[in-house]
Design goal:
Blueprint lengths: L2 E4 L4 H12 L4 E4 L11 H6 L7 E4 L2 E4 L1 H11 L12 H35 L5 H22 L12 H4 L2 H9 L4 H4 L2 H10 L3 H7 L8
Parallel strand pairs: 1-2
Antiparallel strand pairs: 1-3, 3-4
Length: 215
């Protein structure tokens, strides 16, 4: 059964696509145009009552929330493709820890920048300079912690590529789109980590698709 991924052009969905490629799971995509309000159509709301992408359909099974989805596939196909969870319970704990760091500390700051810069540009509305400045400062503090961590291990959860690293790919790419990659490049170990994970074939395939809604 081929997995259906709804909303492939959006960053959170790309997190799922990278995971599926790493796990060698066949999938197809279903475009959802949020700008046009397709995420509020009754048929989509039957799949995702909050009207947010991504959503997957795997046979009769439906799941939403990108991090829940990547955890699901990393576990379901643990012995297939790239092991994204670690080989021990301790490694799994580290993966879960840094996934939470990404979700609770890293993502909110970048998400604010995306909204204030990219979405504002698309909608033709002014950006909030104070929010941008504060978000950059918050992200910088998080990246300082990453720099310390990555000075001791190649990847966030240890010396293996995992969901914790994968989950950073789509939104970190937006730093380049916003002209803010200096936040990565100014930190030696963070830059080496980003150069490594962003060169993975799975990400090259996914990132080669365009997101015209934000251009």
């Amino acid at each position: 059964m081929v997995v259906k991924v709804y909303g492939p052009d959006f960053a959170s969905a790309k997190r799922v696509l990278v995971c599926l490629i790493e796990k060698e799971v066949e999938f197809e995509t279903v475009p959802i145009d949020i700008i046009k309000g397709q995420n509020k159509d009754p048929d989509f709301l039957n799949l995702q009552p909050f009207g947010v992408v991504p959503v997957i359909q795997d046979g009769d099974y439906t799941l939403f929330e990108s991090r829940a989805i990547i955890r699901y596939y990393a576990e379901k196909y643990k012995s297939q493709g790239t092991d994204l969870l670690g080989k021990s319970i301790e490694e799994r704990g580290a993966v879960e820890q840094w996934l939470e760091v990404e979700a609770q500390n890293y993502h909110p700051a970048i998400d604010n920048l995306v909204i204030e810069i990219l979405f504002a540009r698309k909608k033709g509305i002014p950006s909030d300079a104070k929010v941008i400045e504060e978000s950059e400062k918050k992200l910088g503090k998080v990246l300082d912690i990453y720099e310390e961590r990555l000075s001791k291990s190649k990847y966030l959860a240890g010396d293996f590529f995992s969901l914790a690293d994968l989950s950073h790919l789509p939104f970190t790419k937006y730093l380049a789109d916003m002209g803010k990659m200096y936040l990565i490049e100014a930190r030696k170990h963070v830059k080496a980590w980003w150069d490594d994970i962003s060169s993975r074939p799975s990400w090259k395939v996914v990132s080669s698709s365009r997101w015209p809604l934000l251009e």
